[in-house]
Specification:
By secondary structure, this protein is α/β, with parallel strands linked by helices. It is built from 8 helices and 5 strands. Strands 3-2-1-4-5 form a 5-stranded mixed beta sheet, with helices on both faces. Strand 4, helix 5 (about 180-190) and strand 5 form a beta-alpha-beta unit. Helix 1 crosses helix 2.
């Protein structure tokens, strides 16, 4: 049984291909009803296993994604190689001290309890980049992320690039702040040192820096929640310093099948 449709394209209430959804699909398409257990047995026999789904925006255009991978990224890669440049993948993220993730063991029949911070919620922002050589650059921001912070980060990337004798080829998503007039004006003045390129709209899964963000958030969210912004900052700084000194960890982000074209 092969179905290239999504559950919502059929007469189904489920958003996921669960055993119940597959059972309903078989009933709709073949007028034959199987039990949940039988469906599970068939799926296992066919080599299907339950997996966490990849989120993808309805607005995303698959043809634009393919064109970007097959044409635009290859052009960026070719130019960077010809000009002795370095490709960076950049992104911003928010860090909060109330985010608790993962699972915890407990006796059967008893739900595990974790202590969460509520009255002292703290938040930081971070902008970072990664390269397929295993390099990570980052800046933690206390307060709102804006074009001034973005330009400050650009300046740090350019300074680092000059020390290494490399022009920066930076790939970002399509946030409004990336396209605002002050940022565009600054980039025109510094185009000999840095150029910015943009991913297709609604395609965050193409951004390699998303893997770094997930890495950082996983580490922070699995620790005992911190109560102060200073401790949140310290926790983020410590892990980012660790990532910065472990290039193999950064290189592993590029092994995701969805983005191996950039490895």
């Amino acid at each position: 049984m092969i179905c290239d449709k999504r559950p919502e394209q059929l007469k189904m209430e489920s958003a996921l291909w669960t055993r119940g959804a597959v059972m309903l699909f078989i009933e709709q398409e073949y007028a034959f009803r199987l039990s949940i257990r039988a469906v599970g047995d068939y799926l296992k026999r066919w080599g299907f296993t339950p997996k966490k789904p990849i989120k993808r925006a309805y607005e995303q255009r698959s043809e634009s994604v393919k064109q970007w991978i097959d044409q635009e990224y290859l052009a960026i890669e070719k130019r960077a190689k010809a000009e002795g440049g370095e490709i960076h993948w950049g992104d911003e993220t928010a860090l909060v001290n109330t985010d608790v993730r993962g699972r915890s063991y407990a006796p059967k029949g008893q739900a595990p309890v974790t202590m969460a911070v509520r009255g002292t919620r703290q938040k930081l922002s971070m902008i970072s980049t990664v390269t397929n050589q295993g390099k990570a650059s980052w800046m933690i921001i206390d307060g709102a992320f804006n074009h001034e912070k973005l330009i400050e980060f650009f300046e740090a990337l350019v300074a680092d690039g000059k020390r290494a004798g490399k022009k920066v080829f930076l790939i970002l998503d399509n946030l409004g702040v990336h396209h605002c007039k002050p940022v565009k004006a600054w980039l025109v003045e510094h185009q000999a040192d840095i150029e910015v390129f943009y991913l297709p709209s609604y395609s965050p899964e193409l951004n390699l820096d998303e893997r770094l963000n997930a890495d950082l958030k996983h580490v922070i969210s699995t620790r005992v929640p911190v109560r102060t912004k200073a401790k949140l900052h310290a926790a983020a700084k410590n892990h980012m310093a660790f990532i910065e000194t472990h290039p193999e960890r950064v290189k592993s982000y590029f092994q995701d099948p969805r983005v191996k074209y950039a490895a």
